[in-house]
């Protein structure tokens, strides 16, 4: 992409209404534009990263055996009257009336709708287990939308729903999602700790929140420090095998959100391993049994031909919130330092004197070769002064930057800068390009 053709409205000043660094950087780097409280447009740079996060979330759902579909954002109120949640959900639900005066709503979550779909087609124990998910916008009329995409009113969520014949089998579906989440967050460059959690308006009695530790997090959390360092199970995990030991290994150690915190239990953790901190909830999983299937009559016949309400769970990931969480975890005073997996561009090319024949030719050559090498480079071909180009490249977090100017070229040199470490290398243009296309710096 040539910057002159791109749309990257960067801001020089830090917007005064943004309180946390991820919100500030997302506004300054031209990633989002607020349209109303808690409602954002995703500008090209933000959109590009959002899609990369979404794709990683999708790949790990697919690997765990979940099946993607897509449900609408607008739902009929009658579905929610069946479960009893139409009244219970209160002011957080955005209620809409259509031209026929029918009550509709903008979905805050999809338990009712997926239950309606399941009960229409699945009637037998042979139809389960099933794991279905979609990645769709949600609306919650939050009392205090804040911190940009962290607590929005409109936000992108991945929500999976499980259907099983009994509690034992449901537990296995729960474990699949538990393990898939550990791998997902690890691929996104995050250390997310599963913690015992309250179930709130979703219901049920088994629930974990996945928390990324950050000073600016909204939740207060308590856990055994070893959990923060424990690696993810890895992408070669066998989802058809027994996942219980992987789950037990983590749930054996103390970890709880504020609502579930038990100071007496926490005191049993050795003092030097007690961690009380703040965190960002990036995922939340629930097992709630027959809470929806009973009132909504989603029944499957067991092996003896008796109709039983199906056992369900739901599993959410805050896809748009993750963008904020990743920036909170990966930035410095100059801007964002993306984990390789979600960087919007693989490299940058900075032309220090656009219009100079030698600089233009060297940049065009690098642009063609990096593009052909699959690096998806951003080429700054604008007439901005060098200082501004360096600042923008660091602000938006171009992981590798080839800096090309007439003076260096006279000596046959360009500069290759690594954003993460700040290190620079003086190299011939060919060497700089080869280092990147051969992945010499890739560090996962
Ligand atoms: N139906 C269940 C699971 S699918 C559910 O809705 N769970 S939830 O309420 O915990 O939301 C799932 C995830 O969405 C949360 O863990 C959080 O990461 C994200 N989320 C929730 N509310 C917001 C919000 N207002 N802004 C951004 N992300 C949010």
The secondary structure category is alpha+beta
Quickly count the helices. Answer: 14
- Indicate the mean pLDDT: 96
User: What is the correct CATH architecture of the largest domain?
Assistant: 2-Layer Sandwich
Largest sheet: 9 strands, mixed
First and last CA, distance = 23 Å
Percent of residues in β-strands = 25-35%
Indicate the overall shape: elongated
Helix content: 25-40%
What small ligands are held by the chains? 5'-O-(N-(L-cysteinyl)-sulfamoyl)adenosine
DSSP, total strands: 23
Note down, in words, how this protein is organized:
The protein has 444 residues and is of the alpha+beta class. The protein contains 14 helices and 23 strands. It folds into two domains: 3-332, Bira Bifunctional Protein, Domain 2 (BirA Bifunctional Protein, domain 2, 2-Layer Sandwich), CATH 3.30.930.10; 347-443, Anticodon-binding domain (Rossmann fold, 3-Layer(aba) Sandwich). It has helices spanning 21-28, 44-63, 77-83, 85-88, 111-121, 167-187, 226-229, 244-251, 263-266, 319-329, 357-372, 386-396, 406-410, 429-437; strands at residues 32-36, 39-42, 67-68, 74-76, 94-97, 103-106, 130-139, 154-164, 192-196, 206-213, 219-224, 255-257, 274-289, 299-301, 307-309, 311-318, 331-332, 335-336, 347-351, 377-380, 400-404, 414-418, 424-427. The strands form six sheets. Strands 3, 7, 8, 9, 10, 11, 12, 13 and 16 form a nine-stranded mixed beta sheet that branches. It has a five-stranded mixed beta sheet with strand order 20-19-21-22-23, with helices on both faces. A three-stranded antiparallel beta sheet has the order 4-6-5. α11 (357-372) packs parallel to α14 (429-437). 5'-O-(N-(L-cysteinyl)-sulfamoyl)adenosine binds at residues 109, 111, 140, 142, 151-152, 155, 157, 159, 202, 281-284, 286, 314-316, 318, 320-321.
């Amino acid at each position: 992409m040539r910057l002159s053709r791109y749309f990257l409205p960067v801001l020089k000043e830090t917007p005064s209404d943004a309180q946390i660094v991820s919100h500030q950087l997302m506004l300054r780097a031209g990633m989002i534009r607020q349209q109303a409280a808690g409602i954002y447009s995703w500008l090209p740079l933000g959109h590009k990263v959002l899609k990369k996060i979404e794709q990683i979330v999708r790949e790990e759902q697919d690997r765990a055996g979940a099946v993607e579909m897509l449900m609408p954002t607008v739902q009929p109120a009658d579905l929610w009257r069946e479960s009893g949640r139409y009244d219970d959900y209160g002011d957080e639900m955005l209620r809409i009336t259509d031209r026929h005066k029918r009550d509709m709503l903008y979905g805050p979550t999809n338990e009712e709708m997926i239950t309606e779909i399941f009960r229409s087609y699945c009637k037998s124990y042979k139809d389960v287990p099933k794991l279905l998910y979609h990645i769709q916008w949600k609306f919650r009329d939050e009392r205090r939308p804040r911190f940009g995409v962290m607590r929005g009113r409109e936000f992108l969520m991945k929500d999976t729903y499980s259907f099983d014949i009994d509690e034992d089998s449901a537990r296995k579906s729960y474990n699949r999602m538990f393990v898939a989440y550990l791998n997902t967050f690890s691929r996104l460059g995050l250390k997310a700790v599963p913690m015992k959690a309250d179930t709130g308006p979703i219901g049920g009695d088994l629930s974990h929140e996945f928390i990324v530790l950050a000073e600016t997090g909204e939740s207060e959390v308590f856990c055994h420090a070893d959990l923060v360092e424990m690696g993810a199970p890895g992408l070669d995990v066998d989802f058809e095998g027994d996942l219980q030991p992987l789950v037990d290994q983590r749930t054996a150690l103390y970890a709880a959100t504020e609502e579930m915190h038990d100071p007496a239990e926490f005191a049993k953790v050795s003092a030097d391993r007690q961690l009380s901190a703040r965190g960002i909830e990036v995922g939340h999983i629930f097992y709630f049994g027959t809470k929806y299937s009973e009132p909504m009559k989603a029944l499957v016949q067991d092996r003896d031909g008796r109709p039983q309400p199906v056992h369900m769970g739901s599993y959410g990931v805050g896809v748009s919130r993750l963008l904020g969480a990743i920036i909170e975890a990966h930035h410095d005073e100059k801007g964002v330092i993306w984990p390789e997996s979600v960087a919007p561009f693989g490299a940058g090319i900075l032309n220090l004197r656009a219009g100079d024949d030698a600089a233009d030719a060297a940049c065009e050559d690098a642009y063609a070769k990096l593009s052909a090498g699959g690096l998806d480079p951003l080429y700054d071909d604008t007439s901005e002064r060098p200082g501004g180009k360096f600042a923008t490249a660091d602000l938006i977090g171009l992981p590798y930057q080839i800096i090309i100017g007439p003076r260096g070229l006279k000596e046959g040199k360009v500069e290759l800068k690594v954003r993460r470490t700040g290190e620079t290398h003086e190299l011939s243009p060919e060497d700089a390009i080869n280092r990147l296309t051969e992945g010499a710096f890739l560090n996962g």
